[in-house]
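haha ok so turns out i had the wrong file open the whole time. this is the CORRECT one, sorry everyone. sequence first:
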Amino acid sequence: MSPIPPLPSPPASLGGEGLVAVLRAAGCVFAEEEAELLLAAAAEGADLAALVARRVAGQPLEHVVGWAEFCGLRMEVGAGVFVPRRRSEFLVREAAAGTRAGAGAGAGAVVLDLCCGVGAVGAAVAARLGGRGGGDGGGGGSVELHAVDIDPVAVSYAARNVAPYGGRVYAGDLYGPLPARLLGAVDVLVANAPYVPTDRIALLPPEAREHEPLATLDGGADGVAVQRRVAAGALPWLAPGGRLLIETGEHQAPRTAEALTTAGFGEVAVVSSEELEATVVIGRAAR
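then structure:
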């Protein structure tokens, strides 16, 4: 998205069509939808000018308006955090569906979201399993939700996003900050760890590579460095029959699956969604 000249003054005089034209000139593909969201977020003309200036400067729309839609839920986001992607809704679907059918059976399930970012995946899984606060999945009982991220900014957003589901968020590296009582108790462990190979970061859209933390994108030389650490530490935390689900890239999937096998998972599967262009690797602990 390239910069454009300053907005006409006063910004409040811009109608919907005028704002759409400004956004379209800046390269926004979905200018009409973005205009509606910016107008809804603006309390007054000065605020609108600031919001539009940030957007045409290339900041992600979600950072500008302060929230992202994910699985039908509104997740708080802001500058300096990873924006939940629609493809990750597939991770939520697989986690919730398998949990209702297996360990935990939804009601009373213990859910752990590693590399949680703003907590979107964990919150959406809890909502689908009927956690406090509702959701679009209609599960059958309360959910015990825990989430971990190493970035304090992300943790602050995650705490707000998981609060409606009674979730608790920990700041730290992977399993390090978790309470010992969760050992052997987790029914579903979800992880959207970074999986972009280091040499591919430069090919990402500017909104991602310039405005989201590098640590949320960079998966190491082959894209699986953090995933290997997640897999290696997972089994002691899983309940009998509990599952680890890791979102990954189509090209990384064989290596992600190998990481789970190496970690001791005897039952490993790779599932994909053509609609969402998403891939998830699932491992199940022995029953």
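The CA atoms of residues 247 and 258 lie 14 Å apart.
again sry for the mixup
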